[in-house]
Amino acid sequence: MADEKQPIIIKKVIEGGHGHHGGAWKVAYADFVTALMALFIVLWILGQDSEVKENIAGYFNDPTGFGVGNGPSAIEGPGKTDIAPKEMTLLQRKQMEKEQLDEMGKELIENLGDQDFRDIVDQIEIEFTEEGLRIEIMESANDAFFEVGTAALKGKAAEILTVIGKQLAKSENNIVIEGHTDARPFSSRGQTYTNYELSADRANSARRVLQKAGIQKDKIVEIRGYAANRLRDKENPYDVVNRRISIIVKYSEE
After folding, report:
1. CA distances from 247 to 32, 108, 205, 219 (A)
2. How many angstroms separate the first and last alpha carbons of the chain?
3. Mode of pairing for the β-strands spanning 124-128 and 244-250
4. What is the CA radius of gyration of the chain?
């Protein structure tokens, strides 16, 4: 009877959330890790050279131009792509054009070596500048390309320019020709004819040979005569390497 009078106790358990058992901390941790990864990426980019930075910038400006085909990644530069030229960024077009000009320069050196110019190939230097591919033909103590004090090309110089002209005629890029002298003053014709006139006349002599070799007249867009203002060997302004002709295959302007 005593058990029948005892009240019935109902125990209700209310489940409540505790901070350390919830999922909010996971979201915060994920945000922290993401921010940390972004920081490491930024620090890595800051430590790279300018070419890598430009390629990465080009990727973020137009990512559709990367990762297409079998070419390199955005870090190594744009490779094979099937994107129409108008859709490509300026950086991509310049990189592709640089690769094409580089191949043309290597082929040119091979052609000169195969055509009995091995003894003077060392006097021809090919490099890239802001304008494009520069081909420099320098005189040496044993090989002068012009008659002394004149713009008259010697036979071997004309032959070299003919080989170069046939190679450049395959390109659609515009061309600039520069003439350079050493620092010796030119005085045989009086004060009216100086190294400026001589360097410009020599550049024009080279132009005529290049056009005869097949380069279209409208592709040569500029003739420059620098006299001795852009010496190759500044420590020795009278050195023969300062007497040279420079041919610049310009990057496309479009």
Report:
1. 56, 13, 12, 12
2. 106
3. unpaired
4. 34
Rounded CA separation 91/73 (Å): 14
Q: What is the identity of the amino acid at 147?
A: E
Q: What is the mean pLDDT of residues 108-118?
A: 77
Q: Is the pLDDT of residue 69 over 50?
A: no
Question: Which residues share a beta bridge with 224?
Answer: 178
Output the CA–CA distances (angstroms, integers) from residue 85 to 9, 104, 109, 173, 254, in the order listed: 83, 21, 29, 16, 10
Which of 164, 159, 161, 168 lies closest to 116 in space, CA to CA?
159
Q: Which residues are CB-neighbours of 9 under 8 A, at least 6 positions away?
A: none
| 46 vs 43: CA distance, rounded Å | 5
What pTM was computed for the model? 0.63
Q: Which among 207, 226, 209 is positioned nearest to 218, based on CA atoms?
A: 207
Tokens matching residue 38 = 């972004």
- Cα separation of 165 and 159, whole Å? 10
Q: For residue 199, what are the CA distances in angstroms to 54, 86, 185?
A: 37, 39, 12
Maximal CA-CA distance, the chain: 144
Return the number of other C-beta atoms located less than 10 Å from residue 134's C-beta: 19
Is 201's pLDDT higher than 80? Answer: yes
Residue 170 burial by Cβ neighbours in a 10 Å radius (0-12, 13-18, 19+): exposed
